[in-house]
Design a protein that fits this description.
About 40% of the residues lie in helices and about 20% in strands. It is of the alpha+beta class and about 625 residues long. The strands form eleven sheets. It has a four-stranded antiparallel beta sheet with strand order 6-5-7-8, covered by helices on one side. A four-stranded antiparallel beta sheet has the order 14-13-25-26, with helices on both faces. Strands 16-15-23-24 form a four-stranded antiparallel beta sheet, covered by helices on one side.
Length: about 625
Amino acid sequence: MSLISIIFSIFGLSFLIFIHELGHYIMAKRAGMTIEVFSIGMGKPIVSWVKNGVKWQICYLLFGGYVKIAGMEGEDGKEPYQIQGGFYSKKPLQRLLVAGAGPFVNIVFALILFTGIYFAGGEKKPFSQVTAIIGKMDPTSELYSKGIREGDVILSIEGTPYENFRDVLIQGMFKGKKEVEVKILSQTKGVVDSIVPLYSLEEHQRAEMFPKEWKSMGILAPASFVIADGFDPLAESFAPLKESSLKKGDQVVYVDGNIIYSVSQLSAIINSDIALVTIVRDGKKMHIQVPRIVLGDLKLTDEQRDEFVDYKREIDLDGAFASTYFIPFLISEGLFIKEPLLFIDDEEMGKVPHLERGDRIIAVSGIAVNNPKEFYKVLETRKCLVMVKEGPSEDVLWKDADKAFFEDVDKNEIALMEERIGEDLLKSSSGYRFLTPTEPISYKSFLERKNPEELKKVQESFDKNDYEKRLAQKTLFSGVLLKDEQVIYNKGPFAQAKDVIKDIGFSLKGLLTGTLSPKHMSGPIGMIKIVHDGSKSSIMTGLYWLGMISLNLGCMNLLPIPVFDGGHICFTLYEVVTKKRIRAKTMQKMVIPFVALIIFFFVYVTFYDVIKVFNISV
């Protein structure tokens, strides 16, 4: 399937260039221009033949091509308009039609594809690409300090109705803008309308989401469904959730007291060193995330230290005293909170959730505890309490996807399940169920548990670079592969085209203002990968990307750059307005620098395409 997608991608991109040049060819023939070469591809010809005075050739680099018309490159001693049958010897209207024919064909072809996709019922896209729901917030951002959390809905940015996460990326791209007006519908606070400063993401951004030079409002990821799609083959035999009741297709809805809105949020929770402590306060059960800290970070009195040493000896805890895990509260024999403990670093005090004297602990990470010994034992290892439900089974339109997302997760059922913590944990309710509390683990820890023979098989079954990168990862995970839910996306053809043209405009603005580096753009290799990845997902997605690239090709060729079709259009319009012909030397002086610039740009983006496609570190 991957090979078919690659072939489809290469020939699809080649076809777009072929029809572009065919448009030029047909109109040039109609205008009576002399066509010297029609090349399918670039570089050295594989095969060539002459028909009706035109040299036809197919070259090795298929993602390219050109039509060579007499007079476009000039001849020694002659001006372009003096060449018989040449491009500039014809009337201005004929030249405009020939120059515009290539882009016109690409634009029309894109609209045909978009129309076909629309009447075929649309394409399927991950929910995360169409949602306005926030999936992950940066806890250090101003929006977070205003109470904005995962699950809130973005209404507008800079007065424009919010469409999808692309709008967040665009604001991050144009870092020259210091403040951004956002409207967000909070689930608890109503509408927030504020001016939110942008700030650097360099320390905490995910490279695949935000380039380091971009900025953000603190919205790090859109919402997504978090659906189990089997186990990671690298770690399946030791996956923490392997022995739980988890099934393929289950949706993760709750982890350690948090409703889950995205994979990014899930990863952050799994990698936070906290314990979900269930307490009883005034007869009411409460679930509070309390940090697991080592005793070495606490400012203990001699009496407190002696108490911990006695407990440690009584329950046979291994390891040094300073590296023993606990919570920053002193507890009694009956698991009642006696008093808070002080940190050596005073700044950490403000980060600790409030537990009150007299609160009684009844469970940790969903596991019931009855005495300090059980409490210490459970707290010694970081465990996650995960709740799942059966994943969604019906396809929804992208316009209804946010509503379906909220309806999919019943907060009342989750609250009822939470009431069972400390009691009958594994009993299900209306399709919701807790999994056995499990310890998240790193890839390195997984591999250390394998015997030499198993380890060798793992190494042989994975690409060396992929294997080494996984081995170097410090993040913890559950060993489960996760996927998003697909929604039906079916905008009208002109609406699709409008979105693509808007993106082209943003990209050009970013390049011209210096806020977007060319390394974030795609050359031929990157475009082949885009179509390849899309066609692997579905034929409709592959066709959409083909249409998007065709529209890009058409619009970009209309730019007023001398080597592009738009340059020839500008030369012709200049002649029409001034009644003067551009001399060959003038044209040459304008064209040569741009040819050098285009070649450099092509090499530059291709270099970064290779880096991105093959995950090479630079």
